[in-house]
Specification:
The termini are far apart. Strands 5, 6, 7, 8 and 9 form a five-stranded antiparallel beta sheet that branches. The chain has one domain. By secondary structure, it is an all-beta fold. Strand 7 and strand 8 form a beta hairpin. The protein contains no helices and nine strands.
């Protein structure tokens, strides 16, 4: 975990089910410090300690913000997944990453190769079937 101070990020979002309630976590896209207006990873903010954990997409990989998807029968605020898209410029390949929201530093639990280019800054949402 690192202190929030050195990180630049897009406005953090909370889990939708906890809107208007006290929360412990928020998620945000990390601005690339060298290349303007691009995001090169995601972060999880721990509100109680003002610290973060991060996952970086890798060299020449840029994406957008992550969407939180609660696990079926979730028991906690961060019991779910972060779904995010990025584009690998070196390989000209877009991917969808699924991260365990409780441990984003562990990297993806699944990767989906996209058959088309996903633009930077792509916004998404999650609507449960239930």
């Amino acid at each position: 975990m690192v202190s929030l101070d050195p990180l630049r990020y897009l406005a953090a979002v909370i889990v939708d089910q906890f809107s208007s309630h006290p929360t412990r976590y928020a998620y945000a896209a990390l601005f690339n410090p060298v290349r303007p207006f691009t995001f090169d990873g995601v972060m999880k903010l721990y509100d109680d300690s003002n610290t973060t954990t991060t996952f970086k997409y890798g060299d020449d990989r840029y994406g957008g913000e992550a969407v939180f998807v609660p696990r079926t029968n979730a028991t906690g605020e961060d019991d779910g997944y972060l779904v995010c898209f990025f584009h690998d410029e070196a390989e000209n390949q877009s991917e969808c990453l699924i991260l365990d929201a409780q441990d984003i530093e562990a990297g993806p639990v699944a990767t989906i190769m996209m058959p088309f280019r996903v633009p930077y800054g792509f916004h998404a949402g999650w609507i449960s079937a239930a």
